[in-house]
């Protein structure tokens, strides 16, 4: 275990390196921080921190920089989440309140996160499998053609065209709509199949084929494999950190193009807690020089998706964590009110 004083030295090194982009020496620490000890003692503490792998000497200069291990200890023990100021909170709310639908909410969230953190922002759309049904609408387009509109509790809207095996009258369509919503409205998607399995039996024989076709389309919509969608923004922010990537930012850019990689980075959407993955903690090799800060968002206290940012390991962790958490909270409120 590190002594309290050495933890304070590590905190000072992280803060200075993030702020100045320059390796930090003992003289600078003495001048900038009230550590209450001599430069010689600080040098001894820095030597001990280096021996234990928390800081490293990038070249022959006297300065040191944090390692992945040092950043990890900083995040776990030393960094409080920086709260947003009242003007910042109002700006977030005003920006997100103008959204007109779910796509607009996600697009605004990506833009806002990228601007607040000056990193790459990634937002996952609410997952259908973790959603509940708000309403199912059925619209007649022709005697044997119906549009199914599925609306979720998160504001997601899915539309499907259905070619029915036989003409289906307005009265029958209204009856099916009413019976369907009485069973599935407010229920989890995972419960829907068993709730509707016997529904066709309640209709006249000549209508059962159409009812079954409508239900099959609904169930296919619920279990689509391509439901995991992401939006990404602020990639250009990486160009400000060129010197933070040892060789080139190309592997980072390539990784950001892989949706599967990003979904794994964000983690399981059901987990609403904040996750910070630093450097080599990211399994994808192309992202070993980056950190990922993510958190779940949703309505009613349950996470339905994740959002977060990707940036260099030399990151303002308290500020980034505070921004990510605040934005997630406001997005959750918007979904709850939508």
Structural overview:
The protein has 338 residues and is of the alpha+beta class. Helix content is 44%, strand content 17%. It has 12 helices and 10 strands. The chain has helices spanning 4-20, 26-32, 39-51, 68-78, 86-97, 102-117, 170-184, 192-196, 205-222, 250-256, 259-266, 317-337; strands spanning 55-56, 65-66, 120-124, 133-142, 145-152, 157-163, 230-233, 275-278, 290-297, 305-312. Helix 1 packs across helix 4 and helix 5 packs across helix 12 (317-337). The two termini are 49 Å apart. The mean pLDDT is 85.
Describe this structure in a few short sentences.
With 338 residues, the protein is α+β, with helices and mostly antiparallel strands.
Order the strands across the largest sheet as they lie in space. Answer: 7-3-10-9-8
Characterize the biggest β-sheet. 5 strands, antiparallel
Work out the radius of gyration: 26 Å
> N-to-C terminal Cα separation, in Å?
49 Å
Tally of alpha and pi helices: 12
Percentage of β-strand residues: 15-25%
Overall number of strands: 10
Q: What is the 3D shape?
A: elongated
């Amino acid at each position: 275990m590190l002594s309290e004083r050495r933890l304070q030295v590590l905190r000072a090194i992280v803060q200075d390196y993030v702020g100045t982009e320059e390796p930090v020496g003992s003289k600078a620490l003495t001048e900038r921080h009230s550590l209450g000890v001599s430069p010689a003692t600080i040098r001894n503490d820095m030597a001990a921190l280096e021996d234990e792998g928390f800081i490293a000497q990038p070249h022959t200069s006297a300065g040191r920089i944090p390692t992945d291990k040092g950043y990890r200890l900083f995040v776990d023990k030393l960094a409080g989440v920086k709260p947003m100021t009242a003007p910042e909170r109002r700006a977030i709310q005003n920006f997100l309140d103008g959204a007109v639908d779910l796509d607009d909410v996600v697009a605004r969230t990506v833009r806002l996160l990228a601007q607040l953190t000056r990193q790459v922002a990634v937002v996952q759309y609410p997952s259908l499998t973790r959603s509940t049904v708000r309403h199912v609408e059925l619209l007649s387009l022709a005697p044997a053609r119906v549009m199914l509109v599925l609306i979720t509790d998160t504001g997601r809207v899915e539309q499907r065209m259905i070619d029915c095996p036989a003409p289906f009258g307005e009265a029958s369509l209204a009856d099916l709509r009413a019976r369907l919503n009485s069973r599935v409205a407010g229920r989890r998607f995972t419960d829907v199949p068993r709730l509707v399995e016997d529904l066709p039996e309640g209709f006249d024989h000549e209508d059962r084929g159409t009812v079954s076709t409508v239900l099959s389309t609904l169930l296919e919509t619920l279990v689509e494999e391509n439901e995991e969608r992401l939006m990404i923004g602020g990639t250009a922010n990486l160009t400000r950190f060129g010197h933070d990537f040892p060789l080139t930012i190309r592997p980072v850019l390539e990784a950001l193009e892989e949706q599967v990689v990003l979904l794994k980075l964000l983690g399981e959407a059901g987990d609403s807690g904040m996750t910070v993955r630093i450097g080599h903690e990211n399994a994808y090799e192309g992202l070993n020089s980056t950190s990922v800060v993510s958190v779940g968002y949703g309505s009613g206290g349950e996470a339905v998706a994740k959002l977060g940012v990707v940036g260099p390991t030399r990151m303002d962790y308290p500020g980034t964590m505070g921004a990510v958490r605040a934005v997630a909270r406001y997005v959750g409120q918007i979904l709850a009110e939508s």
